[in-house]
Design brief:
320 residues, alpha/beta, Metallo-beta-lactamase, Chain A, eight-stranded mixed β-sheet, 24% strand, globular, binds zinc ion
Length: 320
C-alpha cells in the first residue's frame, strides 16, 4: 500500500554533541559525551542523553539550549544524565516558566533501587514528566514514543523509538545484545545504537560491532548510526569499522563523530549530506585534529597504563 505522509515541511535534523561513551571515554573526554539533539521534529527540539559537557557542547556547535522542547534521559549513568538538570533550567527560562517535557526511565525520574533519581523533584516541577517503560507507548507533542527494553547495569533503563507520522527514529541506549532487541526496534527508519567496542569484543551490558551487525540484519533500517564509542573502539578506527558493518549488512552505517549533523530526508532517508559542525573552541579540547591523531596512537596504551577499561570490565575483574 502506498500512501503519503504529511510533514510540516521542515526537515528533522540529527546532531551528535558527542560520540564517546562509557565512563572512561567520559572521564578522559577523548570523545565528547554531550548526547545528541533531534531538531525540528513536529516543530520541536529535543536533547537526548545529555552527558557531561552537553551544555557547553550545545553552544560550541551553534545551538541554543533555551529552544528545547524536551529532554530525554534513558538511564541512571552519568554519561547519559549529567547535564540534564541544567538543560531543564535552560528550557524553563531558569525555572521561571512552566514548559517542556522530561522523558525518563523510572530510575531517572523516581529512582529505582540504588539507581537515581537523576533529576531532582525541583527540576521536574516546571515541566511535564513522561515515564518511559519497555514496550509502553506514550504520546507527547504529537509524537508517539515507545520505550524499549535494555539489558544493562541500570535494570530500569530504556531505549526508545520516536514515531512521527510513521517515520521512526530508534535509539537503543546502552544495552547488551539479546534476541528480542530487533523486535523492540522493528520498523526503524533510522537506528541509533550505543556500540562500545569493535569486532567481536563483547562486554556485559554493551554491544560490539558483531552485535550491531546482528541487530541491523533484524531491523533493516535505512540508516544506522553507531555512537557511544568506548576507548577500544576509538583506538581502532570507527570509520573503518562502520564501513565493514555496512558491507556486511548492505545498510548505510555511519560512525558518529563529535559534531556530526545531518538533515533527515523523510522520503529517502538514505540520501543526505553529512555536515561536520565546526567547533570554535577546538584548540582547547579533544576535537583538535592534532590531538585526534595522537589520541589514535596513544589512547589505548594510556588507558591501559591508568587501569582504565571500558564500563563493567572492572566490575568483572573485582569478582575474580
Ligand atoms: Zn553509557
Ligand atoms: Zn550506561
Amino acid at each position: 500500500m502506498l500512501f503519503y505522509v504529511q510533514y510540516d515541511g521542515i526537515k528533522m535534523k540529527l546532531t551528535f554533541l558527542g560520540s564517546g561513551g562509557g565512563r572512561f571515554s567520559a572521564i578522559s573526554q577523548r570523545r565528547m559525551t554531550g548526547g545528541f539533539r533531534i531538531d525540528n521534529i513536529n516543530g520541536k527540539n529535543y536533547h537526548i542523553d545529555p552527558g557531561p559537557g552537553a551544555l557547553i557542547r550545545t553552544y560550541q556547535f551553534g545551538f541554543d539550549p533555551r529552544n528545547l522542547s524536551g529532554v530525554f534521559v534513558s538511564h541512571a549513568h552519568t554519561d547519559h544524565y549529567n547535564d540534564a538538570e541544567i538543560l531543564i533550567e535552560a528550557m524553563t527560562k531558569g525555572m521561571t516558566r512552566r514548559y517542556g517535557t522530561i522523558f525518563g526511565s523510572t530510575s531517572v525520574l523516581n529512582g529505582f533501587e540504588k539507581w537515581g533519581p537523576c533529576i531532582s523533584a525541583y527540576h521536574q516541577s516546571k515541566s511535564n514528566t513522561v515515564l518511559l517503560k519497555p514496550d509502553e507507548v506514550v504520546e507527547a507533542d504529537g509524537i508517539e514514543v515507545k520505550g524499549t527494553k535494555t539489558q544493562h547495569g541500570d535494570p530500569a533503563g530504556v531505549g526508545f523509538q520516536l514515531n512521527y507520522n510513521g517515520f521512526k527514529v530508534s535509539y537503543t541506549s546502552d544495552t547488551g545484545y539479546f534476541d528480542e532487541l530487533g523486535e523492540c526496534h522493528e520498523g526503524a527508519d533510522i537506528l541509533i545504537a550505543s556500540v562500545l567496542r569493535p569486532g567481536n569484543r563483547t562486554i556485559n551490558g554493551h554491544m560490539c560491532s558483531r552485535n550491531f551487525i546482528d541487530l541491523i540484519n533484524k531491523v533493516k533500517p535505512k540508516v544506522a548510526v553507531m555512537t557511544h564509542l568506548g576507548l577500544k573502539m576509538i583506538s581502532s578506527n570507527p570509520v573503518t569499522e562502520a564501513k565493514k558493518i555496512s558491507k556486511e549488512t548492505g545498510v548505510k552505517v555511519i560512525a558518529a563523530f563529535d559534531g556530526l549533523s545531518f538533515n533527515v530526508n523523510y522520503k529517502n532517508p538514505k540520501r543526505f549530506r553529512i555536515i561536520s559542525l565546526k567547533d570554535t573552541e577546538s584548540h582547547a579540547h579533544s576535537t583538535s585534529h592534532t590531538l585526534y591523531d595522537s589520541e589514535r596512537k596513544n589512547s589505548y596504551q594510556l588507558a591501559f597504563k591508568n587501569n582504565e577499561f571500558d564500563e563493567l570490565s572492572i566490575l568483572r575483574k573485582r569478582k575474580n
